Amino acid sequence: MALGFPGVEDGTSYGTPALKVRGKLLARVHQSIDCLVLRADFLDRQILMQSAPHIFFITDHYRDYPWVLMRFSAAGARDLPNLIERAWRLVAPRTLVKNYDAGR
User: Fold this and answer.
1) CB–CB of 95/37 below 8 Å?
2) Could you read off the pLDDT of 88-104 as tens digits, one per residue?
3) Residue 56, SS3 per DSSP
4) pTM of the model
5) C-alpha distance from residue 57 to each of 22, 52, 54, 98, 101 (Å)
């Protein structure tokens, strides 16, 4: 599903599967916790963690960085496309986003 967004490619990060847009990381599997690390701005991250703390959290390592962790075991598959799109919009070049929106 994520590969359907313009510029998204498979990659690796810290030795785990990752999704990137022109080399910029948008999501990856965490290396030691059963979760997905997603790009998120700080406001969205706070909202996600407050609204669903059983799904979204951060570790001390991510406190000062624009990332949120999502537990695979607690997340609903229907929420993932929206989260991936939001992360994609944060890292994709403006022209890719603009062209994507124009084609919808």
Assistant:
1) no
2) 999 999 999 999 999 88
3) strand
4) 0.91
5) 27, 9, 8, 31, 30
